[in-house]
Model the fold of this input.
Amino acid sequence: MRSITAAIAAATATAIVVSSSFVIAAIPDTATKVITVCYSKSNGAMRLIDKATKASCNTKTETELSWNQQGVAGVAGPVGPAGRNGTNGINGTNGIDGAVGPQGPVGPAGTNGTSGTNGVDGAVGPQGPAGTGGDKCLAYPRPGNDLSGCDLHDVSYANMSLIGANLSGANLTGANLSGANLSGANFTGTVFTGANLDGANLTGIDLSGRNLTGTSLSGAIFTNMNFAGTNLTDARFSGLDFTGANLTGAILTGTVLWGANFTGVDLSGRDLTGTQLLFTNLTGVNLANTNLTNANLSSANVNGANFTGTVFTGANLYGINLTGIDLSGRDLTGTILYFTNLTGANLTGAILTRTVLNGANFTGVDLSGRDLTGTELIFTNLTGANLANTNLTNANLTLANLTGANLANVLWSNTACPDFTNSNTNPRCGY
Done:
C-alpha cells in the first residue's frame, strides 16, 4: 500500500510536468478532472494515459489507477427549513422588590392555636372554711392536704405535690406515688405495701417502723433516712444512697439493693437472707454476724467490710475481693465463689460441700486435709496452695493452676486433671 501511494504521488508530479511541457492530451480529463495512469506490475513504473483518446492499460502487465482533482466550488444550495425551537434557558435573577402596596382589608379571624404549657403553681392560698358533708379522701391532692386515715389503695398520685400533707394512718397499698414530692409529709402508721415510690422526694420523711413489703423506691430522694424497725421484705431500692441511714432492726429479707451505696452503714446482725446486693458499695460496712444465706453479692465492693461471724451459706460471692478474709469454721455449703479473690484467706475448718470455686484465686491458701469431693475447681488459681491430704475424688480441676501447690498424699480418684486428662488414666494427674 505504501508503494502504490508513493507511485500515485510520483505520477501526480509527472502529470504536472507533462501538462506544463506538452499540449498533446488533456490530462486530467477536461470533463471529469480524472487523472489515469498505468502501473507496471513488474517494475512499478507508471505512465499517463489520456482516456479521451481511447488509450488503455495492458491488463496483463499493468494496473489502471485513477483519481480526481478537487473541482471549483459550486453555487450555494437553497436555505433549508428552520430547525425546532431549543429548550428555554434558565430563569434570570429576580428583580428588585417594588414599593410596598397599600394595606388590604382585614381578613377573617384564624382558628385558635394550641394551648401553651401550664405555668408553675402559684403559692398556696389560705385555707378556706370547711365545707359540709364533703369527703376529704376524695379531695384533689395538694400540698398540706389532710388525708389521714384514708383508704387510698391503688390510687395514682404520680408526679403530684403533697408537700407537708398528712397521710398518717392512710392505706397506700399498691398506690402509685412515683415522682411525687412527699417532702415533710406525715406518714405515721401509713401502710405502703406494694406501693410505687420510684423517684419520689422523701426528704425529711421518717419511715421507721413502717411496713414497706414489696415497695419500690428505686431512684427515690432521701438523706439520712430512718428505717429503724422498718419491714423492707422484697422492697426494691436500686441505685440509692444509704449513707447515714438508720437500719437498726430493719427487715431486709429478699430486698433488692442493686448498686446501692452503704458506705459506713452498720448492718451487723441483720437478716439479709436472699437479699440482692449486686454491684453494691459495702466499703467499710459492718456485716458482723449478719445472715447472708442465699444472698447475692456479685461484683460488690466489700473493701474493709467486717465479716466476723457472717453466714455465707449458699451466697453468691462472684468476683468480689475477700483477700485475707477469715472464713475458718464457716459453712460455705453451696456458696458460689466464681472468680472470687481469696488470696491468703483462712479456710481452716470451713465446710466446702458443693461449693462452686471455678476461677477463684486461692493463692497460698491452706486447704490441707479438706474433703473437696465433687468440687468444681475449673480455672481455679491454686498457686502455692496447701492441698496435702486433700480428697479430690470426682473433683474437676480442668485448667486449674497448681504451680507450687503442696499435693502430698492427695486422694486422686476420677479427678478431672488440669490438662483435660483423668486421674484414673493419668495417675496423680501427672504431678
Residues 2-21 form the longest helix (20 residues). The CA atoms of residues 184 and 286 lie 30 Å apart. The longest strand covers residues 34-40.
